[in-house]
Amino acid sequence: MPPYDVARAQMICGGVDLVVSLELAGWLPQIIETVRRGRDRLLGMSDSQLLPPDRLTRAASAASASGLDGLLITPGADLRYLTGYHAMPLERLTCLVLPARGAASLVVPRLELARAQESPAGQLGIEIVGWDETDDPYDVCAGLLRDGIGGEPVAVAIADRMWAAAALRLRDAMPSAEQRAAGTVLRELRMRKTADEIDQLRLAGAAIDRVHDQVPGWLRVGRTEAEVGADIAAAIIAEGHAEVNFVIVGSGPNGASPHHDTGSRVISSGDAVVVDIGGATAAGYCSDETRTYVVGSAPEGFADYYEVLRQAQQAACEAVRPGVSCASIDAVARDIISAAGYGDYFIHRTGHGIGMEEHEEPYIVAGNDELLEPGMAFSIEPGIYLPGRHGARIEDIVVCTETGHDNLNRVSRELITADG
User: Fold this and answer.
1) Any idea where the domains of the chain sit in the sequence?
2) 389-419: pLDDT as tens digits
3) pTM for the full model?
4) d(CA 395, CA 274)
5) Count of CB atoms situated within 10 Å of the CB of 24
């Protein structure tokens, strides 16, 4: 496979391991060709339709209010959120230079210039600056920021997930500027979704529901987790996502590891199987849904603690409303599980925000006293994990509304049996 296709496949399929599984199963060429034919435009609005014209202005104002001279944003969710440009993270620097005052610029390698201009960023009216192989793009960024603010920057915010090599090069180019994390500024913008963003999350949720509806037919005795995972990954694309973010198929004792991924374990009758899957729409908005299945009959004692988990997840969802703290939602689920004697086996937070990243603010966890507001979207996903035996998790994406919550996933939360 050509290098660009390998890189693109990893973006579509969520990483190297899943790419290998798909290639072995014969699905990868079909997925690549699907995206080449433009299948990734089928889910809802484009990036440009989701990009309010004042988003850059609001981000610059937030930077100024935080005492910053500007934001420096490299490829990732923040760049796509601010400009609509879905840039591949390469060793050549791509960076949005957003002064707290003055004009914004997008600095890109010249060989990516046409692609950047054709993206929604090209419709924002900002300067897109192409740099040549013999240029120092870090000096280019520093110069643009100085021009924007009319002097030497004192404090700048860099993208939270900027590569360390880029952060250090920018520090060398602006030695007098303190570096801070851009997430402290952008979280307030990204955490409260617009109606259009919620529509994208709703489309993603419906698409991943359709995949879960098919899972019982793939959970058959004698198949490996990786084989089931390949079927799921192909279906994530077929049902309307542009990218596969992750596929977890944890059977038997592997279900006790919340982030197991997939493996060579062969599914057997009597297995409990945790299936946690997600993808992204063409505009970059994510789905994330977990259901737990049993193949044939449930293991001894499993149905009892699964019912505890179901009640905890339902109660936590029903507790979501404006003015309630993130910590209190976590406590609702945790208290029910602890009262039933399984508190030590609930080993992670109850949920995480979701949008253009699978995990973002707000986090539904003890100690987070942030109050929920309309437009916040996050998972509710308590779990119980018995090491060496099995585990269970139920996860839905919910949106805080003016009067309560809206659940974006509709697949049954009852224990689902696959005939095997």
Assistant:
1) 53-183, 195-418
2) 999 999 999 999 999 999 999 999 999 999 8
3) 0.89
4) 11
5) 12
